[in-house]
Amino acid sequence: MFQDKPDAFYFFQPENDFEARLLESPEFQEGLNWGKPRFGHPEGKVGYHVRDVLENVERQAKNLEDKQKLRLIAIAHDAFKYKEFVLGRRIKHHGMLAREFMEAHINDPVLLDIIELHDEAFYCWRNAYLEQNQLVAQQRLEKLLERMGENLPLYFDFYKCDTQTGDKVQAPLYWFEEIVASF
Which of 3, 24, 116, 134 is the most exposed, fewest CB within 10 Å of its CB? Predict the structure, then answer.
């Protein structure tokens, strides 16, 4: 298994054949190798960020089933950032691009929703605290909470694994943690 390792395998090791097949795809290869150091992501390439998220998954997963779900979300969540902008204009959020790609590979609507919406809690916080638009923040938050429903704990677990990397600001995590605790 995994004889001739593609470049993406140097970031982290797959734990099963499905993960290996994803990493072998040209789309994932390009996505994991994309990126330069920037605020929130001093590690640069997406593959290094995914490696850091996977390390958090190892520490945070409550059981093997959650670990497998969180790993799959982690591997896919930012892999399509390289396609998000064309000529400096956002064509589609990378979470939606990742979801669309993964729809051909999995049929779990919960995982697909989390892949698509993995940044949404941050956007809610940003609307509330940076943009001072409480109405938009509340509307977005209500939609997110409704869509996640009983899967909110898994969403939060991934959000925590993703947010506790690089030099990301932790205020959105603490804010969202309080909201999740009230459910």
Answer: 3
